[in-house]
Amino acid sequence: MACAFESHAYVIFGATGSLSNSKLLPALFQLHCCGYLATNVKILGCGRTPYGRADWRTSVRTLLTGAATEDNHLEDFLRRLDYLSGDLHDPAFYQTLTAWVSLSECACNLIFYLAVSPELYAPVTNGLAQAGLLNERNGWRRMVIEKPFGHDLSSANDLQQRLGRVLEERQIYRIDHYVGKQSVQNLLVLRFANMILEPLWNRHYIDHVQITHAETAGVGNRTGYYDKMGATRDMIQSHLLQVLALLAMEPPVSLDAEAVRDEKVKVLRSIRPLTLSQIHESAVRAQYAGYLAEKGVAAASRTETYAALKLHVDNWRWRDVPFYLRTGKHLKEQRWMVAIRFREPPMQLFRDADATAVHPNWLLIGIQPEDIVRLEISARVHGLETRTRPIAMDASIVTLGERKADAYEELLLEVIQGNRSLFLRYDEVQAAWAIIDPLMQAWADDRTSPPVYATGTWGPVEADRLFGQSGRKWRQTLTCNADRDWEC
Ligand code: BG6
What domains can you pick out in the chain, each with its CATH number? Predict the structure, then answer.
């Protein structure tokens, strides 16, 4: 007999790994504290670590101590946890899992979370399928898959085919955790709950768009993964293209998952393909100084830790408006922002007055760490001469002291509720790889070493070439300061 809707077990493969410890368990704990997990919901950790239930509980207690507002929250949460140790390639493991499921009164509905390396996606799903754990006779089955979904279009298609043999699309939740961030979700609200922006949101008023994701940290202990992927696959193919899609999409007919994803995929498919001859002027890769000396990085690795692209969305709304995307490790500041620059007025009435330049309008959207929306406009400076300066109209979204929910809290809850609008449909993944693949191929064929940039800077000077002779510049800050070079 099927369980009540809210009864389920969250089965985490890779339960003692870094994703589970840094994101999944803290997020599930918050959901528990906020009352989103029904009393009998269980969390089952699976993996190679030779733990029993008590070991895992002890380890999670250490992990979450400090996050708990009340001690009994933590102890109640720990009682939900159980652990199965085993080899995820071994069919016997899935028999043990089947036995656990049949003994567990809550586990008619099952969520499987693949927090494991991508090579294990196929073995785990096959193991589950062969053990009959994916059939929905006694309740629903949902599979959560982390990025990267493949490392190019062909491997993504291959993975999709394998999953398609044992799961239906409605059971697959492809995570891009940026889509779960509150400030990224706010892009849709900003665009479609406010009438004032819509008339301006097109090629007639917008000069260009910049999407920046800058990190101060290096690759850390993820070199094994990162050296194979690089910044473009790791960040642009997924997170940055998703943000571009949300910024550029047409209004969906509703907030229904399919309606939103239909519009996003249209944008991705409208991106002008990067041809070999354009790559030099449209894409820049670079490596931070010292990357080659990191443990686990191949001796002559050409993997980029910085990438910048100029893309065009060839549709009615955006034709000829460049979208500049950049991301990098070991940069000067931790900054994830969207900067939209508007066109200049058709006549500069105030340019001659005291030789003060009129600043273009910018709409700045801070995603992380600042969660803000700021509009920069020109205003007259008090005094007898007509002088202008940029001022900002500011809307900070999270006020000081307010807790900001982590993206994973929202995403894990959406899986429980069966809402797929924050997850990627396969055609979105496919379209994103189709944009990136020609670039990856061109860079793989290019035997020259990428330029090196000093750590703690804004990246390589070569990135400026994307602007050509347009006079545009990278926007580095969210603040405008007329006394300094506020545009940099
Ligand atoms: C991950 C990338 O998807 O996102 C990492 O693999 C990157 O390389 C991370 O550091 C950034 O996420 P966040 O949420 O910390 O900005």
Answer: 9-146 (3.40.50.720), 179-405+424-484 (3.30.360.10)
